[in-house]
Amino acid sequence: MKILTKNELSQDGWFILLYGTTGVGKTTTIVLTSPMPVMYIQTEARSLKPSLDAAGRPDLEIDVAIYEDWAGLNEFVANPKNFGRHKTIVVDSYSHLMSVGLSTEIEDQAHEARTEKERAVKPLASQTKLSQEGYGALSSLMFRLTAALGKLSRAGKIVIVTALLQESPKWNRELAAAPALKGREFPVNMPGFFDLIGLVEPRTDGDGKIVYPPRVRFQSPDDSFVAKWTGVGNKTQGPLDISKILSL
Prior knowledge:
Largest sheet: 9 strands, mixed
Order of helices and strands: EHEHEHEHHHHEEHEEEH
Radius of gyration: 19 Å
């Protein structure tokens, strides 16, 4: 176990989870307002170009890493040299990674492990069914990835993870809104990893027209949605501006 003095602790690192509905402006605003250079880890199949075009910043310093498989992602995140020049690391998004990328790999491995007779009974269902063991693996692997990203934040990087919004999630029906994360074990326990968890919502002007950037809320007064604030002061909501939020 390594022991650090107070002076040796990084003052710059943050670990942030931002979630909201698709199209609310998370990606564009994060890229536009985060300290440069940015390493953007893309887990979704969609093109990043529309978000970069919407940012309207030809001077953006951004590198993009495309998710191909779980082993490649883990190897990439585990090597600090991949982020040597970057101040901000963005993983977009955990929702897609859990529901599509990682889940598909777990399902495919389970399908290949079944006998030919088992696969022939329900060929499509057997290929896409995530068992209890599969859900356990999904949670365990996500905990490992999140711990590795947390290590980067402790080394002084600003690490931002995004997720979609899910209403009344299965793991807690009392919540009106939460990050859309598959399974139960990981969504229940993941808040402990993050310094900030914010709900990103549309912002409107006096005429009811949507304006940008969107609003983010890091506290839920009635605990109706997942949120977390670790910081000084009580300004826990406002326009989404990463640099201003972190006072950089």
